[in-house]
């Protein structure tokens, strides 16, 4: 993965638990387009550094974490990343909580986009707070004729976001501050299953993702090749 240096251009709190940070820099001039929902590696400064150290060296992976490309403007070369904050501690969360305009962040990637079958018969997207940026990006890339349902879990009503998606996609916000409760599984179990083969996206806590995938595997039209399921974190 190619490594690049960026700087914080703007910070916006989308809600109590999601902070949007836009990044700029000359290194983004050759950043590939149409990679929304793909992952990349954020490279954070080490203690005492103002700029992160780029390159491969002993222990370099300790300062990297995976995040999602929420948006990239090919004309302005502005990269948008949403960080889940205020629900846990960690390298990336702590950096995002304390970020200021002008701060440096390294990036490596991007990797492959995980949701690519935009012309499926219908779509099912299931995500908790950590998977929300990828799910939102995928929803906004769907064609106008797309139909389906999304279940997006956030801790509070104030964490709901405006997502521009086709009229045929129904977004259901699942308000669940108790992360030990698999509210997303219950929501999926209670939804009406559409006809045809769905494209399925699941991005949640690892054990909850496995339970949701186990359920949908037994539903009509399920195919493994049209399913992306990933545990974004472990309880």
From TrEMBL:
<dbReference type="Pfam" id="PF08021">
    <property type="entry name" value="FAD_binding_9"/>
</dbReference>
<dbReference type="InterPro" id="IPR007037">
    <property type="entry name" value="SIP_rossman_dom"/>
</dbReference>
<dbReference type="InterPro" id="IPR039374">
    <property type="entry name" value="SIP_fam"/>
</dbReference>
<dbReference type="InterPro" id="IPR017927">
    <property type="entry name" value="FAD-bd_FR_type"/>
</dbReference>
<protein>
    <submittedName>
        <fullName>NADPH-dependent ferric siderophore reductase, contains FAD-binding and SIP domains</fullName>
    </submittedName>
</protein>
<dbReference type="Pfam" id="PF04954">
    <property type="entry name" value="SIP"/>
</dbReference>
<dbReference type="InterPro" id="IPR039261">
    <property type="entry name" value="FNR_nucleotide-bd"/>
</dbReference>
<dbReference type="GO" id="GO:0016491">
    <property type="term" value="F:oxidoreductase activity"/>
</dbReference>
<dbReference type="InterPro" id="IPR013113">
    <property type="entry name" value="SIP_FAD-bd"/>
</dbReference>
<comment type="similarity">
    <text>Belongs to the SIP oxidoreductase family.</text>
</comment>
<dbReference type="InterPro" id="IPR017938">
    <property type="entry name" value="Riboflavin_synthase-like_b-brl"/>
</dbReference>
<feature type="domain" description="FAD-binding FR-type">
    <location>
        <begin position="1"/>
        <end position="117"/>
    </location>
</feature>
């Amino acid at each position: 993965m190619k490594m690049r240096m960026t700087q914080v251009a703007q910070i916006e709190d989308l809600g109590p638990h999601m902070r949007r940070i836009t990044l700029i820099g000359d290194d983004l001039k050759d950043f590939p387009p149409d990679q929304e929902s793909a992952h990349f590696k954020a490279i954070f400064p080490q203690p005492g550094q103002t700029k992160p150290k780029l390159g491969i060296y002993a222990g370099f992976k300790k300062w990297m974490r995976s995040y999602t490309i929420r948006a990239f403007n090919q004309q302005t070369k502005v990269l948008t990343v949403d960080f889940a904050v205020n629900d846990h501690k960690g390298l990336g969360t702590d950096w995002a909580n304390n970020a200021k305009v002008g701060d440096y962040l390294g990036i490596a990637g991007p990797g492959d986009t995980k949701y690519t079958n935009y012309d499926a018969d219908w779509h099912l997207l299931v995500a908790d707070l950590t998977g929300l940026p990828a799910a939102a990006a995928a929803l906004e890339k769907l064609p106008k004729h797309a139909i389906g349902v999304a279940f997006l879990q956030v801790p509070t009503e104030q964490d709901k976001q405006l997502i521009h998606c086709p009229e045929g996609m129904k977004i259901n916000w699942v308000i669940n501050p108790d992360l030990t409760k698999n509210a997303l599984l219950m929501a999926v179990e209670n939804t009406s299953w559409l006809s045809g083969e769905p494209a399925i996206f699941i991005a949640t806590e690892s054990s909850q993702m496995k339970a949701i995938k186990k359920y949908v595997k037994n539903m009509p039209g399920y195919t493994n090749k049209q399913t992306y399921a990933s545990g974004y974190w472990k309880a």
